[in-house]
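Box 3.1 — From sequence to structure: DUF3369 domain-containing protein
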Amino acid sequence: MSEGFLFAEDDQASNSRDVVVTDKPWKVMIVDDDPAVHQVTRMVMSGFSFDERPVRFLSAYSGREAKDMIAEEDDVALVLLDVVMEEDDAGLEVARYIRQELHNNVTRIVLRTGQPGQAPEDDVIRNYDINDYKDKTELTKTKLVTLFYSALRSYRDISMINESRGGLSRVIQAINSVHDPDSMKQFASAILEQILNLLGLQGDAVFCHSLSTFSDTGNNSFKVMAATGELNELLDDDFSVVDPRIAAAFGEAMEMRRGHYGEGYFIGFYQTARGSESLLYVRAEREIPLADRQLLEMYADNVANVYDGLLLAEKSRQSQKSLLHLLSGAINTRSVNPVDHVRKVGDLSAMLAAESGLNAFEVELIRMAAPLHDAGNVVLADSILLHQGAYSESERQQMQQHAEAGAALLVQSDDQVMQLASIIAQQHHENWDGKGYPEGIQGNDIHIAGRITAIADTLDALCRDRPDRKGVSVQEALEQVRGLSGQRFDPVLIEILIANQDQVTAIMSSDNNE
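Predicted structure (token representation):
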């Protein structure tokens, strides 16, 4: 066959789809009603490869068959498309279907026609988002090879841009979720995926971090921190279910205290300044250049340091909660209320905060700060604090001092919880109608945390026995609180409280030790 005339007559291709046993070949679809075109194209391009990946040909002999095929094969790199088949514009209809109905702007489409006048080149390129237009008679072997290189290179680059855009979107979405050690996984995985794409690696990787620095047991255990590609399912598991071959490679790296190459993979071993250790497995068929390995090391070091920091922050939060619980309990010993009063005030306040639309961080702040609402009780004499019956005017003035005293005590700390607790202590006796104390502020001028805690404190107190009265049921307490809506309490918050009676009942009936 001469190089000047590629599409000579020949026998019909034997089947529509060749199955080539290779790793991730480039898919090229031939759409033409002339069987000889399929056979000659396959023969001429036999053995062609690009970026060390071969080509897999798919054949369709009509526009209808082409539509069905490309709807199933969503990763076709190149379509060699005849114009005139069962209809004069069958090829153009296929192009329209790919671009407009499948919304596929990545696949490269090259029109090949033996009747150039049937579909003028200028009109086709302009109106159908076609990437190239060729007369069958002008396609020599050299030009066809050039066409394949150009189209596949373009498809590769556009695909990488789309993958990077999608990965960047996942990174951005994951940023908002990084607030504790467990939420770090999606963020770390999204970043790892982007790095692998940038380095041109296959995308199958798993990153594990040592727990020995913070482990209660002190043993050298590992946690899966990030996973991509086919290993993504490991994110929901612990290190013990990692593929035995990967685990063995990790074990070898731990023993040697350094990374190494194995058959089809790279293992990285890293240590942070805090002494924690990390292991990175990357499926790699080629040696990773030094600059790329340094980027992976930078990733491992930074993710490990962030994770260590989150672990420390989490332990600090737990310690803070414990200290606040002890402080609240100590304050409550200067009260007629049982010890679990402060816990239930915290839980009720958190529920109201959440149902009011506050974010998770604000809800947790209120949960921890509300139990300190009566911190000022420490300044009250027992004769005032344990007084039964009505106060005299002098006694009332002394009793009301506890709001400002508590605020002054708590505001001395720069901690966010203590700052909010100071506001709550100052304002939880203010009334919606302005007739409360100590300042007589009203409505939305009262901080929402103060308004919420006032309801929670009153509701729980009504349900408890006092020396001078019996506690009422939760339902009766809700009715009494509702009766003070718009006077003592924020009417919107009261509506939210009543709408969530089931949650209120669950909190009020919860065990003291929960």
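Summary of the box: The chain has three domains: 26-161, 176-312, 333-508.
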